[in-house]
Automatic annotation (TrEMBL):
Coiled coil: none annotated. GO terms for molecular function: DNA binding; DNA-binding transcription factor activity. It comes from Actinomadura geliboluensis. Signal peptide: none annotated. GO terms for cellular component: protein-DNA complex. This is LysR family transcriptional regulator. Residues 2-59 form the HTH lysR-type domain. InterPro entries: LysR_HTH_N (IPR000847), LysR_subst-bd (IPR005119), WH-like_DNA-bd_sf (IPR036388), WH_DNA-bd_sf (IPR036390). It holds the Pfam family LysR_substrate. Keywords: DNA-binding, Transcription, Transcription regulation. Belongs to the LysR transcriptional regulatory family. The lineage of its organism: Bacteria, Bacillati, Actinomycetota, Actinomycetes, Streptosporangiales.
Length: 307
């Protein structure tokens, strides 16, 4: 009999590609992962991994079993969800991961809404860009709040995941309150702002790429003189008059003071915000009630309104 816990390890190894990465994702030591996969090979009675001194990769039999493991794990989760659906009230632990601005914007409404379910333990974590889908797929978290600047993420994701669109988050201009462009009666002129000290996230970050694409529409700007991790850090510096920036509107949901927010004429740059969960877990009461709370939070949150 193949043990379910070891099948989960094999499926995770197939996704990660190495024993070290599998161990890091699941919180085990590499030696423990290696031992459990060796035990699974003994249960299966066929080699599942080709091992060398420095690496390991799946054999053909290992790949086939990893595919079956994904199916089996999905069926088990679906069965658990059906049983949970018969419960009178949602209970247990629900783990949600979110990109930083969504975590800050949605947390108050989520805490109020889910506080009505005393049997539910709610955990909200922040995650690095691009990690949410992987964490949901591996079972590390139940729901991920992700952003998509390309419009392609749902189409490229594994079929076992369910995407729920929450809102569109447009790019807006943010300047200090004392800046001439803070006057709502004054048209936003990106040409005149090209030589301003722009601040943005480090190169490669989606929000940085959006700023660069925005400035490319007016011939580009001089190199960004200030690079900072975290949009809230950048906004606090704008409030102190250090420079200007453009950020997704949701980043202003915390009500940053000392800044003026302006719509950018004819700008179509925006990200889509989604909640993602495993299809097999959608019917679990704890997941269903959390998704409803996330929908409500996304609907009700009000970023600082631009002119």
């Amino acid at each position: 009999m193949l043990e379910l816990r070891r099948l989960r390890l094999l499926a995770e190894f197939a996704r990660r590609g190495s024993i070290a990465a599998t161990a890091a994702a699941l919180g085990y030591t590499p030696s423990a992962v290696s031992q459990q996969l060796a035990a699974l090979e003994r249960e299966a009675r066929v080699p599942l991994l080709d091992r060398t001194a420095r690496s390991a990769e799946l054999t053909d039999a290992g790949r086939r079993l990893a595919e079956r493991a994904e199916e089996i794990l999905g069926m088990v989760e679906a069965a658990e969800a059906e049983l949970s659906a018969q419960a009178d009230a949602p209970s247990g632990r629900i783990v949600v991961t979110a990109f930083p601005t969504a975590a800050v914007a949605f947390a108050p409404a989520l805490a109020r809404s889910l506080g009505e379910h005393p049997g539910l333990t709610f955990v909200l974590r922040q995650t690095a860009p691009g990690a949410g889908i992987r964490q949901v797929q591996s079972g590390e978290v139940d729901i991920a709040l992700i952003d998509d600047w390309t419009g392609k993420v749902p189409d490229q994701a594994p079929a076992a995941l369910e995407f729920f669109h929450l809102r569109r988050d447009p790019l807006v201009l943010v300047v200090p309150e004392a800046h001439p462009m803070s006057d709502p009666s004054r048209p936003v002129d990106l040409e005149r702002l090209r030589e301003e000290p722009w601040m943005a996230a480090p190169p490669g970050e989606p929000s940085r790429q959006a700023v660069e694409r925005l400035l490319d529409t007016v011939g580009g700007a001089r190199p960004v003189p200030w690079e900072f991790e975290g949009l809230h850090t950048i906004l606090s510096l704008v409030a102190r008059g250090i420079g200007i920036t453009a950020v997704p509107a949701l980043a202003l949901a915390a009500g940053d003071r000392g800044v003026a927010v302006r719509r950018i004429p004819e700008c179509t740059l925006a990200r889509e915000v989604y909640a993602v969960t495993r299809t097999a877990s959608v019917r679990r009461p704890s997941v269903a009630v959390t998704l409803r709370a996330i929908y409500a939070a996304a609907r009700d949150v009000q970023p600082s309104p631009p002119d």
